[in-house]
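hey m, so remember when u said the tokens were messed up on ur end? i reran from scratch. heres the input so u can diff it against urs
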Amino acid sequence: MKQFKALVVKEWHTHKHVFLVPAYTLAVICVMFFSISIYGVIRYGALSWRINANTVSVMQSEWALWVAYAVISAAIGMLCVVISAMLTEYMINKDHERKCEILHYSQPCSLAKILSAKLFFGIPLMLLQYIALLLISYIVASLFFVYAGFSPWKLGLSAIFKPFPYVVYSLIMIDAFAWIGSNLFRKRLGLKLISSLIAIEIFREILKHTWPQIKIPSPYLFIGETFVRPLTSVVMPWGSTLFGDNPLGIQKATIHLGVALLVFVMGYFINKNRELA
């Protein structure tokens, strides 16, 4: 356990600024929002647009507040997904770029423990950061809505966690793609991964036209659907996505997560056979 903790701390000291990009982004947005608000109050006086509860129906106001909270949650979650994928690539390949890969992999602990620490830093700890940012954004947004004349505390708390399971799903699935790609390609991951997906898509279209009865899912559509699911779970609660009507059920999600687990294991074996530099 001490070794594992030391490995996680090492990843933190090495990649903490990339890891904290979602927190930095939220902090900048909050500072800008408060700065503009304070400037407006000083320059133009107190805002006079507080909502009169008698002019807006309860159903309309509650629906608008619920959507606002859920969209904020989904947007933060999607940012965490992107940063987690970038973080995975950095943790796997930055040591190679810095010519210190042999040093870090020669530590007196197993490769499985080293890679597990990287995964732990990129997924569970990122989820903890996501939860912390959710609570912070919930408090900030609630204070703003209270000032506008609403009472959003209970409604906001239920809405802010609506996209959470979809964020967890997207984070694991997108990170699985980043994990296998980072272990396969040491340099120019984005270009090589896109080229590989294009090749798979071309092969898929050839099979589709040659044998129409064979149905192979499109990797591009799958990645796109997976990435936007936190947002579409809010704006399209019946299960559709921007890429078509493709609801995510418990059985399908379980199968996908099982495949992701196999992808992580494959990445371990690929990494184990890589030549260190």
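this time it looks ok to me. Confidence is low (pLDDT under 50) at residues 237-245. if urs says something different then somethings off w ur setup not the seq
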